[in-house]
Amino acid sequence: QPVLTQSSSASASLGSSVKLTCTLSSGHSNYIIAWHQQQPGKAPRFLMKLEGSGSYNKGSGVPDRFSGSSSGADRYLTISNLQSEDEADYYCETWDSKSYVFGTGTKVTVL
Amino acid sequence: EVQLVESGGGLVQPGGSLRLSCAASGFTFSDYSMNWVRQAPGKGLEWISYITSSSSKMYYADSVKGRFTISRDNAKNSLFLQMNSLRDEDTAMYYCARVVSSTGTTSWGQGALVTVSS
Q: Residue B101: is its pLDDT beyond 90?
């Protein structure tokens, strides 16, 4: 079963960019992941599907400021032109034949 | 627009049972697999159960295996989670979520709060 590793927190100034990392465990470096955003007090929201090639497909209504990329076992979520509403927890998700797994989440603070 | 609306949450004593429901609309429910995902207070997301579109396969996290049962009624566009032998550590917000093949979880409900306490 794959394991997803995320750093616990990240911060950046309003209008700048932040890059979040989700690392797949050994033997699972080619797995597809999904990124989700959870604003305070709200349900999660699907942001995008991200493949090992770096190709990504965003959910409906997700702003252009959100983009994805990949390198080896690392999957990245970049938020450009950071806005106050981007202050949230961000989770990555993957799956195998019989289970799903989420990373521990990264809390993004907008300074 | 995809809508998932959970119901059935509440306060239950340890050892008790509860049944969550999820009403789906805005898409052809019978075409999609579904997940239940929970989130304990102040904690991260935890996948707990999955069911295929036809109910041919169901999977569970070790933390709930043998105590929880996932099911669905495609004729009523509904997903269920029967929770038995509830423990304090099952206290969480429970989310119903739609799964898209090779994409993962793509839509979330607003959640149903389950509190296990004496």
A: no
